[in-house]
């Protein structure tokens, strides 16, 4: 796997896209999603349209977070901890944006019920959005198509990483199987060698016992021959007198 396609680089790419998307979401929540002209029903509709776009972007951010989680599993455990922390921080940031989006949705609902349209942003500012909730549908469809294509590309990248990881795991299993066979063969050879050594040890013991018996026999023969020689000499010396 090349450096450009490594799990680390893919994770950082997802993280970069996630941070860019979060900035856009915060910008909408601080601006279009929270500001409206006082007494304007159109402004309220514009705010609702902005919040609907925020919901779509939150779904996309959620998808990026899932891709980060999937890529995180392919990162070696020895260096995974800081990336896990970065993923947790991104998840917390997305949760805060979701909570803020729900608050603004509730504020818009209250505004419709009460017939008011005050500012509900992070800074409490008031202003009108220029986007129409019913206009530019073609751009929104194109943006949705681009988002789907980008998600498909990221999914293919994740599938490729999963396949490569699976191939590496299969190679490791094959190597482990070969090593196991080698260990079993070595164990069988050791058992055979141990049996051979046992037989050789028994043979050596028998040879040593036989050698001791031969020594005893030879010693007896020598003693007998010495006794015979002494007896012959005695007869010759004392009989000759």
UniProtKB/TrEMBL annotation:
Q: Which UniProt keywords apply?
A: Coiled coil, Membrane, Protein transport, Transmembrane, Transmembrane helix, Transport
Q: Which domain of life is it from?
A: Eukaryota
The GO biological-process annotations, alphabetized, read as:
Golgi to vacuole transport; intra-Golgi vesicle-mediated transport; intracellular protein transport; macroautophagy; retrograde transport, endosome to Golgi; vesicle fusion with Golgi apparatus
List the subcellular locations: Membrane
Domain spans labelled T-SNARE coiled-coil homology: 140-207
Q: Which residues cross the membrane?
A: 216-235
Pfam families (UniProt xref): V-SNARE, V-SNARE_C
Task: Give GO MF terms, alphabetically.
Answer: SNAP receptor activity; SNARE binding
Q: Which family does it belong to?
A: Belongs to the VTI1 family.
Is Translocase among this UniProt entry's keywords?
no
Name it.
Answer: t-SNARE coiled-coil homology domain-containing protein
Q: Where mainly found? A: membrane
Q: Which GO terms describe its cellular component?
A: cytosol; endoplasmic reticulum membrane; ER to Golgi transport vesicle membrane; Golgi apparatus; late endosome membrane; SNARE complex
SUPFAM superfamilies tied to this protein:
SNARE fusion complex (SSF58038), t-snare proteins (SSF47661)
Q: Does the keyword Membrane apply?
A: yes
Annotated membrane topology: Single-pass type IV membrane protein
